[in-house]
Design brief:
By secondary structure, this protein is mostly beta strands. It is built from no helices and 13 strands. The protein folds into 2 domains: 36 residues, no CATH class; 107 residues, Immunoglobulin-like (Sandwich).
C-alpha cells in the first residue's frame, strides 16, 4: 500500500477533511461526506394568547398557579408534580439516566424530572415531562425553560403560589 507523500504528487494524498459542518472521508474511489444531525430546539407549549406554559397538576389535571405541596398528591412527600407539554423531545424514561439529557429550570432552579414520554395529540408530535416542585423554588411568575442535550427551549411562564 502506498503511503501519502506530500513531496511526490504522483500518489494522491488521502485523509479526512472537515468544514461547514461536514466531515469528508476518502473511501476507495469515492469521497463520502458526513453531516451531523442538527440539534433540535425543544419547544415548551404555551396557552393561546399568553406566555404561560401548558402545564397541569399531575393528579388533578388543573392548570396553575401551582401550590408547592398538595394534600391530594399521592406521594409520600406531598410535593406537587407538574406535567409540562412540549414538542417531541425524542426521549424515553431510560434517557433520564443521563442527567444532562433533559434539564428543566424555573428562574434558575432545577426542577427534578421524574418522567418523560411521548404524547399522542392528533397532528402534533409531542412529549410530556413530569417535574417535582423542590423546596427551594420561589413563588410567583417564574421563567420556565428546558434544555434538551444542552439546547435551550423558548422561555415561558410558570406560576407558583405559596
Amino acid at each position: 500500500m502506498n503511503r501519502p507523500d506530500e513531496r511526490n504528487l504522483s500518489v494522491p494524498l488521502t485523509g479526512l477533511g472537515s468544514g461547514e459542518g461536514l466531515i469528508v472521508v476518502p473511501a476507495s474511489n469515492l469521497v463520502v461526506a458526513y453531516q451531523g444531525a442538527a440539534a433540535t430546539t425543544p419547544v415548551v407549549y404555551v396557552e393561546e394568547g399568553t406566555n404561560n406554559a401548558v402545564a397541569l397538576d399531575s393528579v388533578t389535571f388543573l392548570r396553575g398557579p401551582f401550590r408547592l405541596s398538595s394534600p391530594t398528591n399521592l406521594s409520600a412527600d406531598q410535593r406537587t408534580r407538574i406535567v409540562i407539554l412540549t414538542s417531541n423531545l425524542g426521549l424515553t424514561q431510560a434517557d433520564l439516566s443521563d442527567p444532562t439529557a433533559l434539564v428543566v429550570e424555573a428562574s434558575g432552579v432545577n426542577l427534578p424530572v421524574e418522567n418523560v414520554g411521548t404524547l399522542a395529540i392528533p397532528g402534533l408530535s409531542s412529549s410530556y415531562v413530569i417535574v417535582r416542585l423542590p423546596d427551594n423554588i420561589p413563588t410567583g411568575a417564574l421563567d420556565l425553560k428546558i434544555k434538551l442535550r444542552g439546547v435551550a427551549s423558548n422561555t415561558t411562564t410558570l406560576s407558583i403560589s405559596p
